[in-house]
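Suppose you are handed a protein chain with no further information: no name, no annotation, nothing but its sequence. What can you learn? This example shows the usual starting point.
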Amino acid sequence: MWDSICSLLLNFSVQLAACQVATPSLNGYVETEALHISATTSGRIKQMYVNTGDPVAKDQPLFTLDSEAIRSPKIAQVEKRYYQAEEWVNAGTPVLSLIAPDQYKIRFFLPEIALGSLKVGDPLQYECDGCPTIQQATIRFIANSAEYTPPVLYTKEQRAKLVYLVEASPADTSHLHAGQPVSIWLTPPATQ
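A reasonable first move is to predict its three-dimensional structure. Written in structure tokens, the prediction is:
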């Protein structure tokens, strides 16, 4: 009899260990903000030193406008080149756009019911297609006002439809692209 009970308990514990409770994830996406490098004065672009897709270092020359060398304000990648050498450009007109690692953000909408559990500075984890592993990010913004689709009836059921925009700064941006979908966990997902 004891053998039967022990066997039953052992079988139950093996089955229980095999069951993993999935941690729910939120859906989000990657967004970037381009840094526009503009002409400081009107003039002719004498030389372009970079092309679309090129990595640039801080203070690296990007282009020469008449006799003035315009340099990169930070480490970045050239997203787009709007002008070629020998073209005329007006003062204040963007000549290049750059994307720096600190310009990436992960955006998602947090349900109202989970709002009290997060604050700016909290860590989160995310995963994307093509990401080598689960990645880390830090929450940098939580909207003060909810976004909601009418009708605005604040019953208990309707409050569950309130969502708040949250933005997080990814620790590693080498694998991210604007518009890329991500899965976000506020608590670590169970390992498989």
